[in-house]
Amino acid sequence: MSTEYYNRYQKFNFNGKYQPLPFIKIEPKSTDKSVLYRQQKDRMDKLSLEYYGNPYHGWLIMLANPQYGGVEEDIPNNEIIRIPFPFKDSLQQYISEVQKYQRLNGTQ
Alpha helices, DSSP H only, in 1-108? Predict the structure, then answer.
């Protein structure tokens, strides 16, 4: 579990202006968790708290489930969703993909 906060917007702030965040795909790992999503009970901040020890990284879970377009409310009730796990490995995956995106698109 991690209480660390990662500001995913920091790499897209240039001279005080934010660029739109690109779609970054979080590839599956054998250590990922699968959970049954219950619309009336689950929220990304709660799942982040349960699996990562902090409520700040629900966006990482949403990136692992791109079929919902980043909209939590579009996840059907009783759908199996993927939780990228463990947190530090999954966060590093994201950071690596952002660096790759920036190298390819010249935004570094």
Answer: 44-52, 58-63, 87-105
